[in-house]
Here is the input.
Amino acid sequence: MEKVTRIFLAMCMIFATTLAQAQINMPQPSPKAKLEQKVGLTDVTIEYARPSMRGRTIFGDLVPYGKIWRLGANAATKLTVSDEVEIAGNKLEAGSYALFAIPGENEWTIVVNKNWEQWGTGEYKEEEDVFRFTTEVKATSSLVETFEIGIGNLSHTKADLYIKWENAKVVIPMTVEVDSKVMADIKRNLRVDPRDYYMAATYYHESGKDLKQAHEWISKAIEVYEEDGANAFWVYRRKALIEADMGDKETAIVTAKKSMEKAKEAGNDDYVRMNEKSIEEWSK
Here is the structure.
């Protein structure tokens, strides 16, 4: 009898194992999504699930107004930032967080919560909120079938995080710190590789900082490139742009002609056209 029992138990274990291995792989109704975006020098990652309407009324029905919502489906939406950022004017330290929302007809409350490992809203605790803020709801130009979180309107220091579903859209401004990091890199790298003078000059120029300093650095970059025998037509182009913004268009034209000449030697028609256009503009 004991032997029969052992055989029976063994067969049950084999059967259970076979069932576990034979599970059918089905498409998920709310598939996982992972958004990774570099904003300035900061890595921003959003992990969430994407439910679809499927003929249902979403806001005010499936997602009630005035109730905490996980911003998607399944596990709480997870936001990870590699550096400190500002979200709608609120400072957020580097790390991972859960994002929730309390939808309303005209505005939403967005909630940033410390507990990013929770499932849905069942474990949500208001005392674990980092901060919350309200934002206006706008109508989408067309129906959005599948829930979407994205990042757009990127610049060196800013971006917009947007949330869209059904006919509703909210836009959340995000700001990142760039200047102090770039300045530290400039100070560090200028002592290592003189050709980084070009990058430093470009940053100063595009950021509207000290143009005199930018001109000194771009001139140093040209000197180094010429010592190396490089055809640095793009560096001359940047120098011409800086000189024009300094109000010295006469010198800028001379430099642009030099850039154009070198671009022709390199076979770069784009830089030839850009310089021709600038020379024409600065000659007026």
Summary: The longest helix spans residues 2-21. Helices lie at 2-21, 179-189, 196-206, 211-227, 233-245, 249-266, 269-282. The mean pLDDT is 90. Residues 32-176 form one domain.
